[in-house]
Please model this.
Amino acid sequence: MASLALLLAATSANIALAQTFASTTTFDFAGNTFPTGLVKSDWPVEDEPLSRLLVPENVRVQDGFMELLVPGGQSESPILCAEVATEFRVQSASVRTYAILTDEHGVVNGMFHYHNVSQETDIEWLSDPESFQNIEFSANGSRPLMYTNQGPNGNVDAITVSGRAPTDATTAVHEYRLDWTPDATRFYLDGVLHQTQTRYVPSAPGEWYWNN
Model:
């Protein structure tokens, strides 16, 4: 079976210090070289009903994209996945990811800040239109983008809102942007504001992650 791939064309992060974006870091994927400043995750993630294993070999750079691969045909734990993260911590930022999302059903494409389970904000795309979360947020079988701030107890009291995804999200590059400032998280698609969250805004620094 084919692998399920999230393709990242480029990412940029304007890092905020004292509420002012003071520096910019850009990762591009020209050639076949993994960029400096990112690290490939290599550890297990315990979960139910299936655990996951983040495998560095599932991260590939080729043809101007970084591919985060999930090999097809997996049905038992651990599910082999892929993830990269910044080598540095971020304290407020405007992070813009240029990506082609996964069309094959069965994965979650994630772009997020993480410090711990109560200090996380993320953009997620669930590739299966029949997944529980997609059914909850969409009445027409579409696959919306999910925008979440984790709550004090993690997923238990997280706040998730949604936004309409591009009709060609799985075939064309689009800009997925998350602006995190002390007062709010703001979620954009191709430069257009989709949602603003003012509750449970993260306050602790952490790495920025992209996974599949």
Summary: The chain has one domain: 4-211. Residues 4-211 form a domain with the Jelly Rolls fold (CATH 2.60.120.200). Helices lie at 132-137. Residues 39 and 119 are 21 Å apart (CA to CA).
